[in-house]
Amino acid sequence: MEDILTNWWTLASAGLLLPFLIAFFRPSTKFMNDGESTQPFHIYNHPEKKIFDKLVCWLFPFILPLEKLVKYSPAADDNNKERTNALDSIRSKLQDVERDQFKSTCKEWKDWIRSQGEQDDLILGRVVVPRNHSILESMGLVPPTELELKPPLDKSAEVSIELICPRSAIKSGVEFEEAEDEYHSFQQCQLENIVFAESTQLLLWFHGGGMVMGFAKDGALSFGNATKLSQLGTKGAPISIAVLSVAYRLAPENPFPAAIIDGLSACDFLIKQFPLLPLHVAGISAGGNLAAVIGFEFYRSFPGKIKSIMVDAPMVQPRTAELKSYYLQSKSSGVCPVGFLHWAWAAYLQVGEETINYRSRNGLQDALDQSKWSSLDGYGEQPNGKQKGARDDSMFWRLVSPQIDLPTFNAKDAPSILICTATADPLHDEGVELVEMLRKHSCVRIHHFDFKGSHTLAAAVDPEGKAAMIDEWSKSFMESPSKLTSQ
Questions:
Q1: Would you say 44 and 54 are in contact if contact means Cβ atoms under 8 Å apart?
Q2: What whole-number distance in Å separates Cα of residue 342 and Cα of residue 356?
Q3: pLDDT of residue 109
Q4: Are residues 417 and 309 in contact, defined by beta-carbon separation less than 8 angstroms?
Q5: Burial classification of residue 135, based on how many CB atoms lie within 10 Å of its CB (0-12 exposed, 13-18 middle, 19 or more buried)
Q6: What is the rounded CA–CA span in Å between residue 197 and residue 421?
Q7: pLDDT tens digits along 317-361
Q8: Distance between CA atoms of 342 and 323, rounded to whole angstroms?
Q9: Could you report how far apart the first and last alpha carbons of the chain are, in Å?
Q10: In 3-state terms, the chain is what percent helix, strand and coil (to 5)?
Q11: For the chain, what is the radius of gyration of the CA atoms?
């Protein structure tokens, strides 16, 4: 009797699971009305996700339960031990995941360097630059007094940066330690003591993580792309790239504008310390926000100094209620849950309390509309929206949403701008919004790549799209250094 019941339960379970498995693994088909979806997608039948994408999105919340954070207050001065423990736990788990990715991409880059037949190696170490706490004021980006910005917890004098590059990219200034399997490390030093080879190009990189987590040794895109870019140099002359990944301060302990100050400090140092080396700025997700903000600000201040700005899956619009992609992906974005994005924005900008429903479509926006930020000229401005008022503090809101106040680009000195979006990403529409605004500002060197897939996974599941992006980006690295403007 027991065997019969066991077999019956097995058959019943299989019968219940079979429709789900068929739906999960079958090729996705679009369910649209007049070309547009009217309901949120689910993972199992999402028209823009491949099988690998679906599996990762389904498993990811079990590994990194990001939405657990929404039950806690995002306030910087909240001493809730449960929130601290939850956030620390997720950060630690993410670091474990990224450590493996980082080592894998380092090994790939090292193997390629050694395959060139030269006595070269991949080297890695931490460098530091001065943190300019008054850089906003010196650039004319003074916050309105009514904002009452919360001070950061970390008020140290230096910004840490992970530097990784071929050994041949550096002439002197580093002291090496024992070699590891993936790279040869060097001791922490001041970046000002390093002398780069004349052929080296600098890639300033900002990692993702919603402004609340993530690490400079992410390896997800920066080093992987550097490997691919290196290989696209002219025959016998690979592109020599030094990646400088900024360990910017994280919210809620260090709310806005701490990360901006760190990014501006790093970029300002590179431009002034190495004026003859080509500089590129890039980032993913929250790091895409920083790359766009910092790249545009330094185009205003030092036109011609930055060769390219690459922004992947940018998180640039906290007013999410108007963005359809947030609604459509609200039930299917396991890698980047909508509730987590709302909480991360609240932590970064310090709005809202535990009473906010971060899973609600309007929860964050209602809190923003009732916050100190709503008083800023330019807040809430849309691509086809209102004119700016008499006040000029919209320039400060552009440090949050760069698309609301873009520089005027000159065809002679404008950087090549690459914007990557993912069709199954809640952040898709704000990336498209940024592209549209750049085109309205006559940015002639704007390139949009719309990958198929989920947040941060799209480049992996859409290799043709990624190859096209890398090919276009490489053109900026292969331009003559003589085109750099001296100022």
A1: yes
A2: 10
A3: 86
A4: yes
A5: buried
A6: 34
A7: 998 888 999 999 989 888 999 999 999 999 999 987 656 888 888
A8: 13
A9: 87
A10: 40, 15, 40
A11: 23
What's the length of the chain? 487
Residues contacting 73, CB < 8 A, separation 6+: 80, 83, 353, 354
| 155 vs 216: CA distance, rounded Å | 19
Measured CA to CA, the distance from residue 294 to residue 305 in angstroms comes to: 12
pLDDT at 313: 94
Where do we find the tokens 């919340």?
Answer: 61
Q: Which two tokens stand for residue 117?
A: 């037949």
30: tokens are: 């679009």
CA distances from 271 to 4, 130, 276, 281, 293 (A): 75, 14, 8, 12, 16
Place of tokens 């390219």: 308
Residues in the chain, pLDDT under 70: 1-37, 117, 219-224, 233-237, 353-355, 377, 381-393, 480-487
The number of angstroms, rounded, from the C-alpha of 314 to the middle of its chain's C-alpha atoms is 6
List all residues 6 or more positions away from 316 whose beta carbon is below 8 Å from its beta carbon. Answer: 288, 289, 292, 400, 401, 402, 403, 430, 431, 433, 434
Longest dimension (CA), the chain: 87
Query: What's the CA gap between 345 and 286, in Å, rounded?
Result: 10
SS3 assignment, position 330: coil
Would you state the pLDDT for residue 233? 64
* Residues contacting 158, CB < 8 A, separation 6+: 128, 129, 130, 131
pTM of structure: 0.90
